[in-house]
Protein backbone atom coordinates (compact mmCIF):
# COMPACT_ATOMS: atom_id res chain seq x y z
CA UNK A 1 0.00 0.00 0.00
CA UNK A 2 1.36 3.37 -0.97
CA UNK A 3 0.41 6.77 0.27
CA UNK A 4 0.81 9.94 -1.57
CA UNK A 5 3.45 12.17 -0.24
CA UNK A 6 3.70 15.88 -0.59
CA UNK A 7 6.89 17.80 -0.15
CA UNK A 8 6.67 20.80 2.17
CA UNK A 9 9.25 23.42 2.54
CA UNK A 10 10.28 24.54 5.97
CA UNK A 11 10.87 28.14 6.42
CA UNK A 12 14.31 29.07 7.68
CA UNK A 13 12.93 31.25 10.47
CA UNK A 14 10.74 28.47 11.91
CA UNK A 15 13.56 25.97 11.98
CA UNK A 16 15.80 28.28 13.88
CA UNK A 17 13.16 28.91 16.53
CA UNK A 18 12.64 25.17 16.95
CA UNK A 19 16.33 24.53 17.43
CA UNK A 20 16.67 27.30 19.98
CA UNK A 21 13.70 25.97 21.99
CA UNK A 22 15.15 22.43 22.07
CA UNK A 23 18.54 23.70 23.23
CA UNK A 24 17.01 25.76 26.05
CA UNK A 25 14.77 22.91 27.20
CA UNK A 26 17.71 20.45 27.21
CA UNK A 27 19.82 22.83 29.22
CA UNK A 28 16.98 23.26 31.72
CA UNK A 29 16.62 19.50 32.16
CA UNK A 30 20.30 19.01 32.75
CA UNK A 31 20.97 21.93 35.05
CA UNK A 32 17.88 21.95 37.23
CA UNK A 33 18.33 19.57 40.26
CA UNK A 34 14.62 19.02 40.54
CA UNK A 35 14.56 17.28 37.21
CA UNK A 36 17.92 15.55 37.24
CA UNK A 37 16.67 12.02 36.66
CA UNK A 38 18.27 9.34 38.87
CA UNK A 39 19.88 11.98 41.03
CA UNK A 40 17.11 13.58 43.15
CA UNK A 41 13.41 13.70 43.84
CA UNK A 42 11.05 16.40 45.09
CA UNK A 43 8.13 14.37 46.37
CA UNK A 44 8.27 10.64 46.66
CA UNK A 45 4.55 10.27 47.17
CA UNK A 46 5.42 8.36 50.32
CA UNK A 47 4.64 9.66 53.84
CA UNK A 48 4.55 8.17 57.32
CA UNK A 49 1.15 6.73 58.08
CA UNK A 50 0.52 6.07 61.78
CA UNK A 51 -2.34 3.98 63.10
CA UNK A 52 -3.32 3.32 66.73
CA UNK A 53 -5.00 0.46 68.48
CA UNK A 54 -5.49 -0.29 72.17
CA UNK A 55 -4.00 -3.28 73.92
CA UNK A 56 -5.75 -5.37 76.53
CA UNK A 57 -9.17 -4.79 78.07
CA UNK A 58 -10.35 -1.20 77.77
CA UNK A 59 -13.66 -1.72 79.55
CA UNK A 60 -14.03 0.45 82.62
CA UNK A 61 -16.74 1.42 85.09
CA UNK A 62 -17.72 4.87 86.29
CA UNK A 63 -15.22 6.08 88.88
CA UNK A 64 -12.46 3.73 87.69
CA UNK A 65 -8.88 4.96 87.38
CA UNK A 66 -7.37 3.46 84.24
CA UNK A 67 -4.04 2.95 82.47
CA UNK A 68 -4.79 2.35 78.81
CA UNK A 69 -1.96 1.08 76.60
CA UNK A 70 -2.03 2.38 73.01
CA UNK A 71 0.21 0.89 70.29
CA UNK A 72 1.27 3.22 67.47
CA UNK A 73 2.29 1.51 64.21
CA UNK A 74 3.80 3.21 61.14
CA UNK A 75 2.36 1.68 57.98
CA UNK A 76 4.20 4.03 55.62
CA UNK A 77 6.22 2.46 52.72
CA UNK A 78 9.63 3.69 51.54
CA UNK A 79 9.68 4.45 47.80
CA UNK A 80 12.80 6.60 47.87
CA UNK A 81 14.95 4.10 45.98
CA UNK A 82 12.40 3.89 43.22
CA UNK A 83 12.75 7.61 42.61
CA UNK A 84 16.41 8.17 43.49
CA UNK A 85 18.18 4.86 42.92
CA UNK A 86 21.66 6.36 43.35
CA UNK A 87 20.97 7.02 47.09
CA UNK A 88 22.20 4.29 49.38
CA UNK A 89 19.48 2.08 50.75
CA UNK A 90 18.02 3.42 54.01
CA UNK A 91 19.93 6.70 53.77
CA UNK A 92 16.83 8.87 53.98
CA UNK A 93 13.54 7.10 54.53
CA UNK A 94 10.66 9.45 53.74
CA UNK A 95 8.24 7.07 55.47
CA UNK A 96 9.94 7.50 58.87
CA UNK A 97 8.00 9.65 61.36
CA UNK A 98 10.59 11.87 63.03
CA UNK A 99 10.25 13.20 66.59
CA UNK A 100 6.74 11.89 67.18
CA UNK A 101 4.85 13.79 69.90
CA UNK A 102 1.67 12.27 71.35
CA UNK A 103 -1.04 14.41 72.95
CA UNK A 104 -4.16 12.58 74.22
CA UNK A 105 -7.49 14.41 74.04
CA UNK A 106 -10.62 13.22 75.87
CA UNK A 107 -12.90 14.86 73.29
CA UNK A 108 -16.47 13.81 74.20
CA UNK A 109 -15.45 10.83 76.31
CA UNK A 110 -16.64 11.09 79.97
CA UNK A 111 -13.11 10.82 81.33
CA UNK A 112 -10.52 13.06 82.92
CA UNK A 113 -7.09 12.49 81.41
CA UNK A 114 -3.93 12.87 83.46
CA UNK A 115 -1.35 12.25 80.71
CA UNK A 116 0.69 15.20 79.46
CA UNK A 117 2.06 15.40 75.91
CA UNK A 118 4.90 12.90 75.52
CA UNK A 119 7.69 12.52 72.94
CA UNK A 120 8.12 8.93 71.74
CA UNK A 121 10.90 9.61 69.22
CA UNK A 122 11.21 8.29 65.65
CA UNK A 123 8.99 5.54 64.29
CA UNK A 124 10.25 3.85 61.15
CA UNK A 125 8.17 2.00 58.60
CA UNK A 126 6.30 -0.85 60.30
CA UNK A 127 7.91 0.04 63.62
CA UNK A 128 5.82 0.37 66.78
CA UNK A 129 5.75 2.55 69.89
CA UNK A 130 3.65 2.20 73.02
CA UNK A 131 2.02 5.03 74.90
CA UNK A 132 0.18 4.69 78.22
CA UNK A 133 -2.82 6.94 78.76
CA UNK A 134 -3.73 7.65 82.39
CA UNK A 135 -7.12 8.91 83.47
CA UNK A 136 -10.31 8.49 85.48
CA UNK A 137 -13.82 7.69 84.31
CA UNK A 138 -16.30 10.20 85.69
CA UNK A 139 -18.69 9.00 88.34
CA UNK A 140 -21.74 10.01 86.30
CA UNK A 141 -20.47 8.52 83.04
CA UNK A 142 -23.11 7.05 80.74
CA UNK A 143 -22.33 3.56 79.43
CA UNK A 144 -21.15 3.42 75.84
CA UNK A 145 -18.18 3.28 73.46
CA UNK A 146 -16.10 6.46 73.34
CA UNK A 147 -13.08 7.41 71.22
CA UNK A 148 -10.15 9.05 72.97
CA UNK A 149 -8.32 11.17 70.43
CA UNK A 150 -4.58 10.45 70.13
CA UNK A 151 -3.10 13.51 68.40
CA UNK A 152 0.32 12.66 66.91
CA UNK A 153 2.58 15.30 65.38
CA UNK A 154 5.85 14.56 63.56
CA UNK A 155 8.17 15.57 60.71
CA UNK A 156 9.26 13.57 57.67
CA UNK A 157 11.64 14.00 54.71
CA UNK A 158 9.63 14.83 51.63
CA UNK A 159 12.46 15.88 49.25
CA UNK A 160 16.24 15.46 48.86
CA UNK A 161 17.43 17.89 46.21
CA UNK A 162 21.12 17.78 45.12
CA UNK A 163 22.93 21.06 45.28
CA UNK A 164 26.14 22.76 44.10
CA UNK A 165 27.42 22.64 40.53
CA UNK A 166 28.38 18.97 40.63
CA UNK A 167 25.16 17.85 42.34
CA UNK A 168 27.21 16.05 44.98
CA UNK A 169 25.62 17.68 48.07
CA UNK A 170 22.23 16.72 49.48
CA UNK A 171 19.86 19.13 51.21
CA UNK A 172 16.92 17.43 52.97
CA UNK A 173 13.55 19.12 52.99
CA UNK A 174 11.00 18.39 55.76
CA UNK A 175 7.27 18.56 56.12
CA UNK A 176 5.22 18.46 59.32
CA UNK A 177 2.24 16.19 59.64
CA UNK A 178 -0.49 15.90 62.31
CA UNK A 179 -2.77 12.89 62.63
CA UNK A 180 -5.71 12.35 64.98
CA UNK A 181 -6.05 8.67 65.81
CA UNK A 182 -9.01 7.26 67.77
CA UNK A 183 -8.42 4.87 70.68
CA UNK A 184 -11.56 3.07 71.82
CA UNK A 185 -12.66 3.15 75.47
CA UNK A 186 -15.78 1.36 76.72
CA UNK A 187 -17.75 2.55 79.76
CA UNK A 188 -19.64 -0.35 81.29
CA UNK A 189 -22.93 -0.23 83.18
CA UNK A 190 -23.00 -1.23 86.86
CA UNK A 191 -25.19 -1.36 89.94
CA UNK A 192 -24.38 1.81 91.84
CA UNK A 193 -26.21 2.29 95.15
CA UNK A 194 -26.41 5.85 96.44
CA UNK A 195 -27.53 6.64 99.98
CA UNK A 196 -30.71 8.70 100.19
CA UNK A 197 -31.00 8.83 103.98
CA UNK A 198 -29.65 7.26 107.15
CA UNK A 199 -31.45 6.43 110.40
CA UNK A 200 -30.38 4.84 113.66
CA UNK A 201 -32.27 2.82 116.23
CA UNK A 202 -30.89 2.40 119.73
CA UNK A 203 -27.28 2.92 118.71
CA UNK A 204 -26.06 3.46 122.27
CA UNK A 205 -23.00 2.12 124.12
CA UNK A 206 -23.19 -1.32 125.71
CA UNK A 207 -26.08 -2.70 123.66
CA UNK A 208 -27.24 -3.45 120.13
CA UNK A 209 -28.97 -1.22 117.66
CA UNK A 210 -29.89 -0.85 114.02
CA UNK A 211 -28.44 1.24 111.22
CA UNK A 212 -30.94 1.84 108.41
CA UNK A 213 -29.87 3.20 105.02
CA UNK A 214 -32.30 4.04 102.24
CA UNK A 215 -30.49 3.50 98.93
CA UNK A 216 -31.22 4.07 95.25
CA UNK A 217 -29.60 2.36 92.29
CA UNK A 218 -28.21 5.31 90.33
CA UNK A 219 -26.33 3.00 87.97
CA UNK A 220 -27.50 1.69 84.60
CA UNK A 221 -27.24 -2.04 85.30
CA UNK A 222 -29.75 -4.43 86.85
CA UNK A 223 -28.29 -6.62 89.56
CA UNK A 224 -29.54 -10.07 90.46
CA UNK A 225 -29.06 -11.73 93.84
CA UNK A 226 -27.98 -8.37 95.23
CA UNK A 227 -26.52 -8.50 98.74
CA UNK A 228 -25.87 -5.20 100.53
CA UNK A 229 -24.28 -4.67 103.93
CA UNK A 230 -22.84 -1.96 106.17
CA UNK A 231 -19.26 -2.39 107.33
CA UNK A 232 -17.85 -0.16 110.10
CA UNK A 233 -14.24 0.95 109.76
CA UNK A 234 -13.65 0.11 113.42
CA UNK A 235 -14.41 -3.57 113.99
CA UNK A 236 -13.50 -3.38 117.68
CA UNK A 237 -15.96 -0.69 118.70
CA UNK A 238 -18.65 -2.22 116.48
CA UNK A 239 -19.48 -5.87 115.99
CA UNK A 240 -21.76 -6.91 113.14
CA UNK A 241 -24.74 -8.98 114.24
CA UNK A 242 -26.31 -9.12 110.76
CA UNK A 243 -24.03 -9.82 107.81
CA UNK A 244 -26.20 -7.98 105.29
CA UNK A 245 -29.53 -7.71 103.52
CA UNK A 246 -30.55 -9.78 100.50
CA UNK A 247 -32.41 -7.64 97.97
CA UNK A 248 -32.72 -10.04 95.04
CA UNK A 249 -33.25 -7.96 91.89
CA UNK A 250 -32.18 -4.31 92.01
CA UNK A 251 -32.82 -2.36 88.82
CA UNK A 252 -31.88 1.18 87.74
CA UNK A 253 -33.54 3.95 89.80
CA UNK A 254 -35.07 1.41 92.20
CA UNK A 255 -34.90 2.03 95.96
CA UNK A 256 -34.38 -0.36 98.83
CA UNK A 257 -33.90 -0.30 102.60
CA UNK A 258 -30.77 -1.78 104.18
CA UNK A 259 -31.26 -2.47 107.90
CA UNK A 260 -28.45 -4.19 109.79
CA UNK A 261 -27.99 -4.91 113.49
CA UNK A 262 -24.77 -3.79 115.14
CA UNK A 263 -23.45 -4.22 118.68
CA UNK A 264 -21.80 -1.14 120.20
CA UNK A 265 -18.98 -1.53 122.67
CA UNK A 266 -19.58 -0.27 126.18
CA UNK A 267 -18.23 3.18 127.06
CA UNK A 268 -18.13 4.23 123.41
CA UNK A 269 -18.20 8.00 123.15
CA UNK A 270 -21.17 9.55 121.42
CA UNK A 271 -20.45 10.77 117.89
CA UNK A 272 -20.22 9.74 114.26
CA UNK A 273 -18.00 6.87 113.15
CA UNK A 274 -17.00 6.01 109.54
CA UNK A 275 -18.47 3.05 107.71
CA UNK A 276 -19.17 1.94 104.15
CA UNK A 277 -22.09 0.46 102.29
CA UNK A 278 -20.83 -2.46 100.20
CA UNK A 279 -21.99 -5.73 98.70
CA UNK A 280 -22.06 -7.81 95.54
CA UNK A 281 -24.42 -8.84 92.75
CA UNK A 282 -24.74 -11.12 89.74
CA UNK A 283 -25.13 -9.59 86.28
CA UNK A 284 -27.26 -10.94 83.44
CA UNK A 285 -24.43 -13.26 82.35
CA UNK A 286 -24.05 -14.74 85.83
CA UNK A 287 -20.79 -12.93 86.55
CA UNK A 288 -20.30 -11.80 90.15
CA UNK A 289 -19.46 -8.12 90.65
CA UNK A 290 -18.31 -6.35 93.79
CA UNK A 291 -20.14 -3.12 94.57
CA UNK A 292 -17.84 -0.17 95.06
CA UNK A 293 -17.92 0.98 98.71
CA UNK A 294 -20.11 3.99 99.45
CA UNK A 295 -18.94 6.04 102.41
CA UNK A 296 -21.43 6.69 105.20
CA UNK A 297 -21.45 7.21 108.96
CA UNK A 298 -22.70 5.46 112.10
CA UNK A 299 -24.04 7.84 114.73
CA UNK A 300 -23.78 6.67 118.33
CA UNK A 301 -25.98 8.39 120.92
CA UNK A 302 -25.21 8.78 124.61
CA UNK A 303 -28.23 6.68 125.50
CA UNK A 304 -30.11 7.06 128.77
CA UNK A 305 -27.78 8.48 131.43
CA UNK A 306 -29.39 8.40 134.89
CA UNK A 307 -28.13 10.57 137.72
CA UNK A 308 -29.31 10.83 141.33
CA UNK A 309 -29.48 14.57 141.96
CA UNK A 310 -30.39 14.10 145.64
CA UNK A 311 -27.19 14.32 147.62
CA UNK A 312 -27.75 14.50 151.39
CA UNK A 313 -30.71 13.54 153.61
CA UNK A 314 -31.17 13.62 157.39
CA UNK A 315 -32.96 11.04 159.56
CA UNK A 316 -33.27 10.37 163.25
CA UNK A 317 -31.71 7.34 164.93
CA UNK A 318 -33.95 4.38 165.59
CA UNK A 319 -36.79 5.68 163.45
CA UNK A 320 -38.30 4.37 160.23
CA UNK A 321 -38.62 7.26 157.87
CA UNK A 322 -39.60 8.05 154.29
CA UNK A 323 -36.95 9.59 152.09
CA UNK A 324 -37.35 11.20 148.67
CA UNK A 325 -34.65 10.61 146.03
CA UNK A 326 -34.83 12.47 142.71
CA UNK A 327 -33.41 11.01 139.50
CA UNK A 328 -32.75 12.78 136.22
CA UNK A 329 -32.07 11.42 132.71
CA UNK A 330 -29.26 13.54 131.31
CA UNK A 331 -28.89 11.37 128.19
CA UNK A 332 -30.50 11.66 124.77
CA UNK A 333 -32.73 8.56 124.70
CA UNK A 334 -35.56 7.54 127.05
CA UNK A 335 -35.27 4.98 129.82
CA UNK A 336 -38.30 2.72 129.49
CA UNK A 337 -39.90 0.92 132.45
CA UNK A 338 -37.38 2.55 134.77
CA UNK A 339 -37.16 1.11 138.28
CA UNK A 340 -35.00 2.73 140.97
CA UNK A 341 -33.50 0.73 143.85
CA UNK A 342 -31.50 1.65 146.92
CA UNK A 343 -28.91 -0.66 148.42
CA UNK A 344 -28.68 -0.70 152.20
CA UNK A 345 -25.77 -1.41 154.49
CA UNK A 346 -25.27 -2.57 158.07
CA UNK A 347 -26.68 0.66 159.49
CA UNK A 348 -29.13 1.99 156.91
CA UNK A 349 -31.67 -0.73 156.22
CA UNK A 350 -34.27 -0.27 153.46
CA UNK A 351 -37.82 -1.20 154.42
CA UNK A 352 -39.02 -0.60 150.83
CA UNK A 353 -36.11 -0.52 148.40
CA UNK A 354 -37.66 -0.37 144.89
CA UNK A 355 -39.85 2.19 143.14
CA UNK A 356 -41.06 2.15 139.51
CA UNK A 357 -41.66 5.39 137.66
CA UNK A 358 -42.31 4.29 134.05
CA UNK A 359 -40.60 6.18 131.25
CA UNK A 360 -37.89 8.66 132.13
CA UNK A 361 -37.38 10.79 129.04
CA UNK A 362 -34.30 12.81 128.11
CA UNK A 363 -33.96 15.78 130.47
CA UNK A 364 -36.83 14.54 132.65
CA UNK A 365 -36.65 14.20 136.48
CA UNK A 366 -38.74 11.99 138.75
CA UNK A 367 -38.77 11.43 142.50
CA UNK A 368 -38.95 8.03 144.20
CA UNK A 369 -39.97 7.48 147.85
CA UNK A 370 -38.24 4.84 149.94
CA UNK A 371 -38.78 3.72 153.54
CA UNK A 372 -35.59 3.19 155.54
CA UNK A 373 -34.50 2.76 159.14
CA UNK A 374 -31.23 3.28 160.94
CA UNK A 375 -29.99 0.38 163.08
CA UNK A 376 -27.64 1.36 165.90
CA UNK A 377 -26.34 4.45 164.12
CA UNK A 378 -23.80 6.83 165.47
CA UNK A 379 -25.47 10.18 165.94
CA UNK A 380 -23.97 12.93 163.80
CA UNK A 381 -22.39 10.55 161.28
CA UNK A 382 -23.21 10.52 157.58
CA UNK A 383 -23.69 7.16 155.87
CA UNK A 384 -23.46 6.62 152.10
CA UNK A 385 -26.27 4.73 150.43
CA UNK A 386 -25.92 3.29 146.93
CA UNK A 387 -28.66 3.40 144.33
CA UNK A 388 -29.14 2.29 140.72
CA UNK A 389 -31.83 2.37 138.05
CA UNK A 390 -32.84 -0.58 135.91
CA UNK A 391 -34.57 0.15 132.62
CA UNK A 392 -35.15 -1.04 129.04
CA UNK A 393 -33.64 0.49 125.92
CA UNK A 394 -35.45 1.20 122.64
CA UNK A 395 -35.23 -2.46 121.58
CA UNK A 396 -36.39 -3.85 124.92
CA UNK A 397 -32.95 -4.91 126.13
CA UNK A 398 -32.48 -4.70 129.90
CA UNK A 399 -30.05 -1.97 130.91
CA UNK A 400 -28.59 -0.97 134.26
CA UNK A 401 -27.34 2.48 135.12
CA UNK A 402 -24.03 3.08 136.78
CA UNK A 403 -24.10 2.87 140.56
CA UNK A 404 -24.77 6.18 142.29
CA UNK A 405 -24.77 7.23 145.94
CA UNK A 406 -26.16 9.83 148.28
CA UNK A 407 -25.55 10.63 151.93
CA UNK A 408 -27.84 10.06 154.95
CA UNK A 409 -26.99 11.98 158.11
CA UNK A 410 -28.22 10.40 161.35
CA UNK A 411 -28.88 13.19 163.81
CA UNK A 412 -30.95 13.60 166.94
CA UNK A 413 -33.54 16.28 166.53
CA UNK A 414 -34.03 18.99 169.17
CA UNK A 415 -36.86 21.34 170.05
CA UNK A 416 -40.26 20.94 168.41
CA UNK A 417 -38.75 18.79 165.71
CA UNK A 418 -37.53 16.25 168.24
CA UNK A 419 -40.98 16.11 169.85
CA UNK A 420 -42.77 15.75 166.58
CA UNK A 421 -40.38 13.03 165.36
CA UNK A 422 -40.75 10.92 168.54
CA UNK A 423 -43.66 8.48 168.35
CA UNK A 424 -44.21 8.48 172.10
CA UNK A 425 -44.51 12.23 172.17
CA UNK A 426 -46.82 12.11 169.23
CA UNK A 427 -49.11 9.64 171.03
CA UNK A 428 -49.20 11.84 174.14
CA UNK A 429 -49.92 14.90 172.07
CA UNK A 430 -52.64 13.05 170.22
CA UNK A 431 -54.18 11.95 173.54
CA UNK A 432 -54.15 15.49 174.86
CA UNK A 433 -55.83 16.71 171.70
CA UNK A 434 -58.42 13.98 172.02
CA UNK A 435 -59.19 14.92 175.66
CA UNK A 436 -59.48 18.58 174.76
CA UNK A 437 -61.79 17.82 171.89
CA UNK A 438 -63.92 15.59 174.13
CA UNK A 439 -64.10 18.29 176.80
CA UNK A 440 -65.14 20.93 174.30
CA UNK A 441 -67.79 18.62 172.93
CA UNK A 442 -69.22 17.87 176.42
CA UNK A 443 -69.27 21.56 177.25
CA UNK A 444 -71.09 22.27 174.04
CA UNK A 445 -73.68 19.57 174.81
CA UNK A 446 -74.23 20.90 178.35
CA UNK A 447 -74.86 24.43 177.12
CA UNK A 448 -77.17 23.22 174.46
CA UNK A 449 -79.18 21.28 177.10
CA UNK A 450 -79.44 24.29 179.41
CA UNK A 451 -80.66 26.48 176.61
CA UNK A 452 -83.37 24.00 175.74
CA UNK A 453 -84.92 23.88 179.33
CA UNK A 454 -87.75 26.53 179.76
* Broad CATH class of the largest domain: Mainly Beta
Overall geometry = rod-shaped
Give the rounded overall mean pLDDT.
83
Number of continuous helical runs: 4
Number of E-type strands: 29
The span between the termini is 202 Å
Q: Kindly estimate the percentage of residues that lie in beta strands according to DSSP.
A: over 45%
Please indicate the count of domains: 3
Structural class: mainly beta
The name of the CATH superfamily of the largest domain reads Immunoglobulins
Contiguous uncertain segments of 5+ residues: 1-13, 21-42, 80-86
Task: Please give a structural write-up.
By secondary structure, the chain is mainly β. The chain folds into 3 domains: 34-187, Immunoglobulin-like (Sandwich), CATH 2.60.40.10; 193-300, Immunoglobulin-like, CATH 2.60.40; 306-412, Immunoglobulins (Immunoglobulin-like, Sandwich), CATH 2.60.40. The protein has 4 helices and 29 strands. Strand 9 and strand 10 form a beta hairpin. Mean pLDDT is 83; it is low at 1-13, 21-42 and 80-86.
List the helices and strands and how they pair.
Elements: H1 12-31, E1 50-55, E2 59-60, E3 65-74, H2 80-83, E4 97-105, E5 111-113, E6 118-123, E7 128-137, E8 144-159, E9 162-163, E10 169-170, E11 173-187, E12 193-201, E13 208-217, E14 223-232, E15 238-240, E16 245-250, E17 255-264, E18 271-282, E19 288-300, E20 306-308, E21 312-315, E22 320-329, E23 335-343, E24 348-352, E25 354-360, E26 365-374, E27 382-392, E28 398-400, E29 404-410, H3 416-421, H4 423-452
Parallel strand pairs: 2-11, 21-29
Antiparallel strand pairs: 1-3, 3-7, 4-6, 4-8, 5-7, 8-11, 9-10, 12-13, 13-17, 14-16, 14-18, 15-17, 18-19, 20-22, 22-26, 23-25, 23-27, 24-26, 27-28, 27-29
Amino acid sequence: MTFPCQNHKVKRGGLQLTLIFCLVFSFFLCCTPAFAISYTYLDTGSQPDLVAHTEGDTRYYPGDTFQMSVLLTNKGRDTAMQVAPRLSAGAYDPSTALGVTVTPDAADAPVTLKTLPVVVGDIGQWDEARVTIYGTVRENATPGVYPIQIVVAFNYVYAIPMTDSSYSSINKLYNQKVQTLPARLIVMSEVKPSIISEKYENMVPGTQGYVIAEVRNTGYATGNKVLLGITPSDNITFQMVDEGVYLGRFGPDETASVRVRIAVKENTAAGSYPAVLDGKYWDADGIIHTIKPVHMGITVSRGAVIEAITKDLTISPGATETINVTYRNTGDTPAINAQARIIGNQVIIPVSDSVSFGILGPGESKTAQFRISAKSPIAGKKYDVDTEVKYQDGLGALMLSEKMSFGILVQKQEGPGAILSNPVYLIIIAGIFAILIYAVWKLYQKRSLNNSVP
